[in-house]
């Protein structure tokens, strides 16, 4: 079933902004989704959707302080503080599905947000200023991997007149860097307690760390199951589970979702149910995918039998957290990101993924405006060429549908598949 | 020793016996650099890489690349493979200015000194470093004095002269040339002024200002009296008290505490105060923002400046540029219209 169609039916044009703030919207939506459990191929996806609706309801109905964060900020801190995390980049994806992207992007353009900036942030800006997003009580943002996020989120914090906390992440992974990041994390945590007048609850904070570790274990189990041949989940379906990775670590619900997904994958593997009737090639997907209707996965997986067996965003790059040293271990987690530091580190991680998932080729979706992911591709291409791994750099935009060229995309994909199959 | 970002403490180079040489890019397109970096990345960074690939740079012992923004991070990735020869040393620069950041940066600077030290010389002598700090501070103080004249004078030295001088000052080819600079700055200060027609006093802002923009502004009848850029006023830092005994801590505080670059996102209030002080002191009548293409920091810095200029009632013109020396026709038309609005006939 198309959840966006259902959402759109609840959020009629004239009432959109008001509908987001009405408890009835979430009640109806939740009931409608809950009633359709059997229509979901993956029960974990159903659980994830229900959790997301609950979290959105809490944010839009302002059931507590809402803290905006970018997708690389360690959310364990936010869950540990009991605030409601809200990731505008992830919400921009939902806005795309709801069909409000065009108007929101136009608004951002009118506010002088350059068209050269990442469209996730342009869209988030437009949605916020048009009243589609819940106002923040505070904004936190890490500086690593993306230059636009801190700029965009600081602008939003200034617009709403709320505190902005920057987590400055260096590129080295030594003891000095670890100390520097850990001290900032601790400072940000207690600044949030003070500015939002929260009650510090050590047990709740510990619980978030424990949840994070549990979710990590289950995601690792999911990833191990996805290494098996033939694949039992299509990449298009698996992409739906990236959200907890970007905004859900520290929450108990992410443990449930990944646990359920691991169980379902295990069952499917044992029952020898395949993702596609005939697996002709296995692909690794780098960066994100476009979130508006498009034919990319249809062509790759259903028509050509080239299954996307893993996506870079689901890679577990960090070691388990130490509940005794939460800030140090969160600092270590942040600094462990394979996209941080020299490109050689990302290349090494990608090559390891190729081996682990037995990938025959790689597609990188070059999202317009994401200089972090695209600028170092030459070094990756050189390394892949040495190993003889076919690579396609597919240019496009994850959320701005006007940048999607179906004909050109199909031609490039067909050319790549011809070389691969 | 080559360097790019103005958060690079050149004092360490001088103390180690290197002549600091700033990479200021080149005019023209960058077709070869674009094959190693993507097209929608900072043109200044591309331009520096292109200059290295085309062997247009003087012989360098190495290059220090500050990981101050995404584009610099990527340049640091490709430079050892495709850039100029010599060693490539990277330097992490915090985006905050507080005690933790100063301490962390000072540790990075100590490491930088060790990495740059010639073989056999493990630790940089602190006396030599203090001497280099003093030398640089005297040079910057002279520049600041010259630039401050523009606040009071009706016919101050034009922006073009100043920026040309600053460009030469950043790119000496040997220590003797660098030593001469104090006299050059003094000469610029004492140069007799030619009385010209009254021109609107302008603040030019951006990440790095291209020379041809300032030239064009002044050819069209404007007067650039304050250049808020990393090759303008930001480069000259700000006077700092020597409260520390540790030269690395001093340098960390000096650089992080200087006029903030748009990358210092947590310091935006300081940036607004910086603009406000410049507008009042230099009697600014209009602002021109050079938005470097694909510079994420500049995109949002412009939005903040727009809000600021609206509050101040100052006319603001945005000109987009790719650092290639192009866009002249479009710039000229828009500049003429802007200056006409400011009363230039």
From TrEMBL, chain A:
| Protein keywords | Iron, Iron-sulfur, Metal-binding
The keyword Transmembrane appears for this protein: no
- Cross-referenced InterPro entries: FldB/FldC_alpha/beta
The record's Pfam families line, in alphabetical order, gives: HGD-D
Q: Which cofactor does it need?
A: [4Fe-4S] cluster
Give the top-rank taxon of the lineage listed in the UniProt record for this protein. Answer: Bacteria
* MF-aspect GO terms: hydro-lyase activity; iron-sulfur cluster binding
As for family, the record states: Belongs to the FldB/FldC dehydratase alpha/beta subunit family.
Can you say what this protein is called?
2-hydroxyglutaryl-CoA dehydratase, D-component
Phylogenetic lineage? Bacteria, Bacillati, Bacillota, Clostridia, Neomoorellales
């Amino acid at each position: 079933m198309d959840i966006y169609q259902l959402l759109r039916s609840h959020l009629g044009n004239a009432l959109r902004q008001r509908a987001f703030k009405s408890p009835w919207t979430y009640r109806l939506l939740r009931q409608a989704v809950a009633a359709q459990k059997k229509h979901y191929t993956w029960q974990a996806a159903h659980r994830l959707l229900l959790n997301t609706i609950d979290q959105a309801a809490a944010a839009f109905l302002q059931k507590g302080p809402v803290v905006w964060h970018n997708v690389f900020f360690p959310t364990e801190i936010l869950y540990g503080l009991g605030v409601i995390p809200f990731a505008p980049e992830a919400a921009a994806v939902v806005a795309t599905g709801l069909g409000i992207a065009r108007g929101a992007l136009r608004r951002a353009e009118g506010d002088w947000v350059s068209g050269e900036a990442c469209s996730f942030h342009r869209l988030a800006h437009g949605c916020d200023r048009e009243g589609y997003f819940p106002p923040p009580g505070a904004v936190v943002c890490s500086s690593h991997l993306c230059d636009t996020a801190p700029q965009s989120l600081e602008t939003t914090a200034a617009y709403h007149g709320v505190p902005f906390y920057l987590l400055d992440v260096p590129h080295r992974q030594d003891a000095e860097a670890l100390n520097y990041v850990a001290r900032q994390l601790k400072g940000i945590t207690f600044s949030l307690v003070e500015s939002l007048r929260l009650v510090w609850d050590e047990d709740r904070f510990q619980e978030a760390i424990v949840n994070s570790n549990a979710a990590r274990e289950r995601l690792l189990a999911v990833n191990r199951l996805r290494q098996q041949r033939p694949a039992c989940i299509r990449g298009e379906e698996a992409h739906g589970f990236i959200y907890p990775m970007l905004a859900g670590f520290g929450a108990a619900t992410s443990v449930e979702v990944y646990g359920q997904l691991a169980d379902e994958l295990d069952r499917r593997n044992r029952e020898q149910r395949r993702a596609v009737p005939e697996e002709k090639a296995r692909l690794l997907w780098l960066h994100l995918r476009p979130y508006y209707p498009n034919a990319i996965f249809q062509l790759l997986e259903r028509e050509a039998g080239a299954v996307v067996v893993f996506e870079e965003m689901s890679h577990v790059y960090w070691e388990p957290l130490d509940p005794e040293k939460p800030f140090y271990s969160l600092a270590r987690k942040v600094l462990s990101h394979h996209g941080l530091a020299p490109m050689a580190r990302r290349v090494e991680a990608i090559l390891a993924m190729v081996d682990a998932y037995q990938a025959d080729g790689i597609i990188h979706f070059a999202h317009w405006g994401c200089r972090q992911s695209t600028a170092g591709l030459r070094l990756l291409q050189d390394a892949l060429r040495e190993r003889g791994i076919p690579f396609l750099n597919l240019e496009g935009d994850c959320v701005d549908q006007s940048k999607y060229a179906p004909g050109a995309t199909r031609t490039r994909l067909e050319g790549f598949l011809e070389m691969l199959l | 020793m080559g360097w790019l970002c103005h958060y690079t403490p050149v004092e360490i180079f001088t103390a180690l016996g290197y002549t600091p040489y700033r990479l200021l890019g080149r005019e023209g397109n960058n077709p070869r650099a674009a094959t190693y970096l993507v097209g929608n990345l900072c043109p200044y960074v591309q331009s520096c890489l292109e200059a290295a690939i085309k062997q247009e740079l003087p012989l360098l012992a190495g290059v220090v690349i500050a990981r101050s923004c995404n584009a610099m991070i990527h340049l640091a990735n490709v430079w050892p493979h495709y850039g100029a020869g010599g060693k490539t040393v990277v330097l992490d620069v915090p985006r905050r200015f507080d005690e933790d950041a100063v301490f962390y940066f000072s540790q990075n600077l100590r490491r930088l000194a060790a990495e740059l030290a010639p073989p056999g010389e493990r630790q940089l002598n602190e006396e030599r470093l203090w001497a280099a700090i003093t030398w640089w501070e005297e040079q910057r103080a002279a520049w600041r004095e010259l630039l401050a004249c523009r606040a009071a004078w009706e016919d101050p030295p034009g922006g073009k002269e100043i920026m040309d001088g600053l460009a030469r000052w950043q790119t000496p080819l040997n220590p003797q040339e660098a030593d001469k600079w104090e006299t050059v700055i003094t000469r610029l200060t004492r140069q007799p002024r030619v009385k010209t027609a009254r021109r609107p006093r302008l603040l030019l802002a951006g990440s790095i200002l291209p020379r041809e923009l300032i030239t064009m502004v002044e050819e069209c009848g404007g007067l650039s009296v304050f250049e808020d850029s990393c090759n303008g006023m930001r480069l000259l830092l700000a006077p700092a008290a020597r409260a520390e005994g540790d030269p690395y801590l001093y340098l960390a505080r000096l650089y992080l505490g200087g006029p903030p670059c748009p990358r210092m996102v947590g310091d935006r209030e300081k940036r607004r105060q910086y603009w406000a002080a410049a507008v009042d002191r230099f009697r600014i009548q209009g602002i021109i923002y050079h938005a470097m293409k694909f510079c994420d920091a500049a995109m949002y810095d412009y939005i903040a400046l727009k809000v600021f200029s609206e509050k101040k009632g100052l006319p603001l013109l945005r000109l987009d540029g790719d650092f290639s020396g192009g866009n002249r026709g479009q710039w000229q038309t828009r500049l003429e219209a802007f200056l006409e609005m400011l009363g230039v006939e």
